[in-house]
Structure formats: C-alpha cells, structure tokens
Design a protein that fits this description.
352 residues, alpha/beta, Rossmann fold, 2 domains, seven-stranded parallel sheet, 15 helices, globular
C-alpha cells in the first residue's frame, strides 16, 4: 500500500517547472510522485494549480465513489472490503480517507489508514489520510483534487471516505461520480435515518451490520421513504437547498425515463456478506452515468464545483486585496460607530 510523502515544498521560483515534471511522473504511474503530488495539493504549495491543470486530462477516466454516513456505521471497514473486491477485478485502487483534525496540531489522526492495514503490502493500493482542517461538509478542501491526482496516477477507482457526517454535510455528492451512503441499525431512530440530507444524497444505500437486530426495519424504512419521495439520483445528487433545486427539476423533466432508482443493499462488511451485491449496484450506477440523464447530472455537478471554486478564489482574492479596509471597518464596529450589517453593506457597495 502506497503512503504519503513528506517532501518539503520547493522554492516558488521553480514551482511551475517542478509541477510539470512531477505531473509527468504521476502520469507515468510513479507512486512516490503521486505521494508528493498529494502533499503539494493538500498543502496548496506554489505550483499546485499548475500540477492539477497538467493532470486533469489524465484523471478523467477514474471512477470516484464517495462513501459517507453517520459515525459508527462501519464506513472504514466497508471501504476496505470494497478495495479488496475492486483489486480482485484488476487495476489500481486509491482511497482518500478524511479524518477529523486534531484541535492542537491541525493534522489527521490517521485512524482510517490504520484500518487499511490489510492492503499495506499491495503496491497498487494507495491510501491517503487527510485532515478536515476546519472544512465542513465531511471532506477536506483538497480531497477532490487529491482524487484527481490519484486518478492520473492510474487508479481505476478512487474511494473518497468522509469523516462521520451529520444530515446536511454533503459535499461528497458534489465531488463523487457515485455516492454510497451507509446506514446501520442502532445509529438513530427511523425518522432520523430518513431525514432529507443523507436520503437525497445517495445513489446507493448500504445497510451495514445487517446481522444486528433492527437491520430489516432500517432497510424497509429507507425503501419506503425513497418510494414516498420519488427520490432518484438524477435529482438527489445535485442536492436541494444548495442553489440547485431548479437544476434538479430540469434533470427529472429532461430525461424522465432515464431516472436512476436508488437501491438499498444489506451487507455485513466484517464477514464480507452482501458486498459483492453492493459492488454490482455501484457498477450499475456507473453504467447509468453514460445515459443522457447521467451525462446531464455530471455536467450539473461540474458546474456546481466550478461555482464553488470561483466563490472561494474570488472571495479570497477580494479579501486579501482589501484587508486594510476590513480592519478599519472592524475597528469602527468595535467602537460602536457602525453595526456589522451596515459595515458589510458599505464594503460590498464600495467593492462592487
């Protein structure tokens, strides 16, 4: 199992040339180069944008699967089983496992990497643990970029395992081609399990720990809620309440016959029971992505990702450029000369 490299950042003056050379090595399938590239991207060192631009075309063929769910449902164990099955089919597999940040160092605790010890000797499995670093939504800010690095490295499948998320922390569905939501008995009452956040995120549901009491009830509740809401991945995957409800409606009405019906699969990951069936449901969704509705969904997802990147880049640039004005306004608010709302409105008017 490949691991991350801690090579220090290179001088900024050489960043572009180094990024191009590093990209060539990643595309050639060099594991140490992929580890260095992941570190470069995760730390946002000089040259990381050039690196990603060079790698982008080579990453397009990788299948990215987001794995999410509440804490304690067995995400890491099931992810490890999926790696095992994908490797049996041939080809490289990568995992980007997002761990909670340490409140002191800001680093990842690496718990997910510890659970991947079964793949340690496999040179064609790459596991990268990253910290959330304060990012909300279950993913780190660099997770999507690292997934593309590993796709360019040659990973046929990249599994994005989120930190244990709540009901509306659903960034993974804006990054992954296929979103697997894991539930388990004992993780909350039926209404809690069926709340709109995770329900509308899923392309495939897995009810893990199906040997435990209450598992059948969870399965039936999910199927009932899916049927009641007529929820399909073509509308659910772009989300609701995130500036995308209109886009989702277009997806449903444009190709109504192509709608993806979200399956619910029972499994016991610790005993490898039901995992093969789950893998087949995931593969069916990948095939669906080649349909007109699936292609439309991908375009919508990329549009949302682009909007998000632009929002972050523009706000960062704007605030850096006008930092002094912000500090002056903050001082006025502290003195009581302005309130927060008036200060915000005044700055927006000045900058636009």
């Amino acid at each position: 199992m490949a691991d991350a490299d801690d090579t220090p950042a290179q001088p900024a003056s050489d960043a572009s040339a180094i990024a191009r050379a590093l990209a060539d090595s990643v595309i050639a399938g060099e594991t140490r180069a992929a580890a260095r590239a992941c570190r470069l991207v995760d730390e946002a060192w000089p040259g990381h944008a050039e690196l990603l631009a060079h790698l982008y075309p080579s990453a397009a063929s990788a299948w990215t699967i987001g794995v999410t769910g509440s804490p304690g449902v067995g995400k890491s164990t099931l992810t490890s089983r999926l790696v095992q099955h994908f490797r049996a089919q041939g080809g490289r597999v990568a995992v980007v496992a997002v761990d909670p940040s340490s409140p002191f160092s800001g680093g990842a605790i690496l718990g997910d990497r510890i659970r991947m010890q079964a793949h340690w000797a496999d040179a064609d499995v790459f596991v990268r643990s990253v910290a959330t670093r304060g990012a909300h939504g279950g993913l780190s800010r660099s997770a999507a970029d690292m997934a593309r690095v590993l796709g360019a490295w040659g990973a046929r499948v990249v599994l994005l395992e989120t930190v244990g998320v709540g009901q509306d922390e659903l960034d993974v569905m804006r990054v992954a081609d296929t979103t697997l939501v894991i539930q388990a008995p004992g993780a909350g009452d039926d209404i809690q399990a069926a709340k709109a956040g995770l329900l509308e995120c899923a392309d495939v549901f897995a009810v893990n720990k199906a040997d435990m009491p209450g598992a059948e009830r969870v399965v039936e509740t999910l199927r009932s809620m899916l049927a009641l809401g007529h929820i399909t991945a073509s509308s659910a995957s772009v989300g609701r309440g995130h500036s995308s409800a209109v886009v989702g409606a277009v997806s449903q009405t444009t190709h109504p016959g192509d709608a993806w019906e979200v399956p619910v699969v029972s499994c016991v990951s610790t005993r490898d029971e039901g995992v093969a069936d789950l893998l087949e449901r995931l593969s069916e969704h990948r095939r669906w992505l080649a349909s007109p509705a699936g292609k439309l969904r991908k375009r919508q997802r990329l549009t949302q990702e682009l909007f998000g990147r632009l929002r972050e880049a523009l706000s960062s640039t704007l605030l850096d450029r006008h930092r002094a004005e912000v500090e002056i306004a903050a001082e006025q608010v502290a003195r009581g000369d302005l309130d927060l709302y008036a200060a915000t409105a005044a700055l927006v008017r000045r900058w636009t």
